[in-house]
Design brief:
- Helices cover about 40% and strands about 30% of the residues.
- By secondary structure, the chain is α+β, with helices and mostly antiparallel strands.
- It folds into 2 domains: about 160 residues, Electron Transport, Fmn-binding Protein, Chain A (Pnp Oxidase, Chain A, Roll); about 80 residues, Split barrel-like, CATH 3.20.180.
- Strand 9 and strand 10 form a beta hairpin.
Length: about 260
């Protein structure tokens, strides 16, 4: 079972570009960009020192408010460069729809990075990367947060959309509402709806709901994470409930069709 949904994400990006050909709503593009970022298991981080660019693989997570989270070792070259120059960029991408790599949806976020201490956001990062529990307490590692300054979403070949920082951020009231309701949502779904999680993830591997945000949720089985993107951003616990019911119904219908 793959830990993400690249095919669906590619379709979501395509919808954001094609569903409103006359008005190209920035909110659609921002939602598609966040969905891609939240689903990607890794990304490329670009830093620089004395004008010399440097790119490296990182495993990121996305905070409820849309900022990017990194768990970085102080020994890494990119960490040392961020300490000197916080301006950076991060590129995440989905799967290509053809042999041409240019058909892959991708998003580049530019922003400012800083080291933070926040147990809640560290837990969020670990929920996205549960295998990292083995080194989560190493003394040379720390949590970094990238505050987005803007983004470029490319839905495929010749389908680029610039997104302003304010558009990329989800609605603050919705973020706060979902954060407040998240513990109860997780406890209820895991206690009462394990069968629905298995349907959504497509296998009976002991899936558990591990994180919820305005754009979707993460299901975890051991060290594997399955990302479910909602059809649209939700604003409260009732929106999450409806999105999970819809996902369950669609999974059940697809199972019957097979």
């Amino acid at each position: 079972m793959a830990p993400a949904l690249p095919g669906r994400l590619a379709a979501l990006v395509a919808e954001g570009a094609a569903a409103h050909p006359a008005r190209a709503m920035s909110a659609d593009h921002a939602f598609a960009a966040r969905c891609l970022l939240r689903a990607a298991a890794s990304a490329t981080l670009a830093t620089q020192r004395d004008g010399q660019p440097f790119a490296s693989l990182v495993t990121h997570a996305v905070a409820p408010d849309g900022s990017l989270l990194l768990w970085l070792s102080a020994l890494a070259q990119h960490t040392r460069q961020l300490e000197q120059e916080p301006r950076c960029a991060l590129l995440a991408q989905g799967a290509a729809s053809s042999p041409n790599p240019q058909t892959a949806p991708r998003v580049t976020v530019t922003g400012l990075a800083r080291r933070i201490e926040d147990p809640r956001l560290k837990a969020r990062w670990l929920a996205r990367h549960p295998y990292a529990a083995l080194y989560a307490e190493f003394a040379d590692f720390a949590l970094w947060r990238i505050e987005p300054q803007g983004a470029l979403l490319v839905g495929g070949f010749a389908a680029a959309h610039r997104i302003r920082a304010e558009a990329l951020r989800p609605d603050p009231a919705a973020v706060a509402a979902i954060e407040a309701a998240e513990p109860e949502i997780i406890a209820h779904v895991n206690a009462e709806h394990a069968d629905a999680l298995a349907l959504i993830a497509g296998s009976d591997a002991g899936w558990r709901l591990s994180a919820v945000d305005v754009d979707g949720c993460d299901l975890t089985a051991g060290e594997v994470v399955f990302r479910l993107a909602f059809p649209a951003p939700v604003s409260d616990a009732e929106g999450v409930r409806k999105a999970l019911i819809l996902a369950t119904r669609r999974a059940r219908a697809g199972q019957g069709a097979g």
